[in-house]
Automatic annotation (TrEMBL):
UniProt-listed GO biological process terms: phosphorelay signal transduction system
Pfam family, one: HalX
Span of domain Response regulatory: 7-116
Species this protein is from: Natronoarchaeum philippinense
Name of this protein: Response regulator receiver domain-containing protein
Modified residues (4-aspartylphosphate): 54
InterPro entries xrefs: Bact_response_regulator, CheY-like_superfamily, HalX_domain, Sig_transdc_resp-reg_receiver
UniProt keyword list: Phosphoprotein
């Protein structure tokens, strides 16, 4: 596809990783690259649609950068792309997707495309996908016994179920392909 569909900010303190991600995305999107949290915040403006953010960086962590993004009131979609195994601390983080490294070019492109689409949804549907991403990240990395003992995970699951019930009324926003994709996903 020749059309540039979104502006993506890739943030990773490893220049090789950042360049690989950028090259994989440039075929379909306009890409900015930052190698530190400070550079990311300097590069960030209202034109950025999606941020791919590493959690573990030396000057500012991705968690701190995420807090600054939200404190500025920016509405860009944020995917944490990291080698940090998800733990219960992610429940309170205001990101939209969590990718555990290593990730493929196809995963990056698919994630960016999904996030661009999600940005057009109403707030409740965006919240649902964010909660679903956190739940899926924890389920993929934590043993069931640990999840069952966690009050935080129980609260997250209750929130997920409440949002899912509320969204039954909002499904009319989705086109046929998105509704089909959602129905087949394990998130709904």
């Amino acid at each position: 596809m020749d059309e540039q569909r979104g502006i993506v900010l890739v943030v990773d303190d490893d220049p090789r990783v950042a360049r690989v991600y950028a090259e994989q995305l440039r075929r379909q999107h306009t890409v900015r690259v930052a190698y530190s949290g400070a550079d990311a915040l300097e590069s960030l403006d209202t034109d950025v649609d999606v941020v791919l953010l590493d959690r573990r960086m030396p000057d500012q962590t991705g968690d701190e950068v995420l807090e600054q993004i939200r404190a500025r009131g920016l509405t860009c979609q944020v995917a944490m792309v990291t080698a940090v195994e998800p733990d219960f601390d992610i429940i309170e983080m205001d990101f939209d997707e969590y990718l555990y490294k290593p990730v493929t070019g196809d995963q990056l492109l698919s994630t960016v495309d999904h996030l661009l689409r999600r940005a057009t949804y109403d707030t409740a549907l965006q919240e649902f996908f964010s909660v679903a991403a956190k739940r899926a990240a924890l389920e993929s990395e934590k043993p069931l016994s640990v999840l069952q003992e966690s009050d935080e995970f129980a609260t997250l699951t209750a929130r997920f179920e409440r949002l899912r019930e509320e969204l039954d009324e909002s499904l009319h926003q989705l086109d046929d392909e998105e509704a089909f994709e959602l129905a087949l996903s394990d998130q709904f």
